[in-house]
Amino acid sequence: MRAGALVAAGAFASALTMAASGIAAAEPATDITVDGTYVVNVDIKPGIYIGDGTPDPATGACFWRRLWKIQTAQDYPDPNYYIIASDFTRVKPITVEIKATDVGFSTENCGAWHLAPARPNTGSAG
């Protein structure tokens, strides 16, 4: 009977410690500074992003992709199958709208991306 009471006390103490520690999920980022694939609404916020562009156009171009699914080893093998929209460009700066319905966003050799400030609602339809 003592062992059961100790187990229950230990579980309660662990739950209390976790609740008191203030563990919370981090807010999605508004800046992308490293090449990679990001989960929308988890890693990054949706919105209009402006990218610096390829740091050195002589070495290649910026390649970004908006994804409807992030490919895993068990998925269909063609990575192009999962692309909603993409661009391969040397133009600077780069603008892309990452939508809340996108699952992922991937960037290679594009430099840093920054979420543009939201435009005020003017109330007009056009």
Descriptive overview:
The protein is an alpha+beta fold. 15% of the residues lie in helices and 29% in strands. It has one helix at residues 2-20; strands at 31-32, 36-39, 47-51, 62-67, 83-89, 94-98, 104-108, 113-115. A four-stranded antiparallel β-sheet has the order 1-8-3-6, with no helix packed on it. The longest helix has 19 residues, at 2-20. The N and C termini lie far apart (73 Å). 17% of the residues are buried. The model is unreliable at 1-22 (pLDDT under 50).
Side by side, the strands of the main sheet go 1-8-3-6
Number of strands: 8
**Rg over CA atoms:** 22 Å
Helix and strand run: HEEEEEEEE
What global shape is seen?
Answer: globular
Helix count from the secondary structure assignment:
1
Overall average pLDDT: 82
Structural class: alpha+beta
Low-confidence stretches: 1-22
Report the span from N to C terminus: 73 Å
**Biggest sheet character:** 4 strands, antiparallel
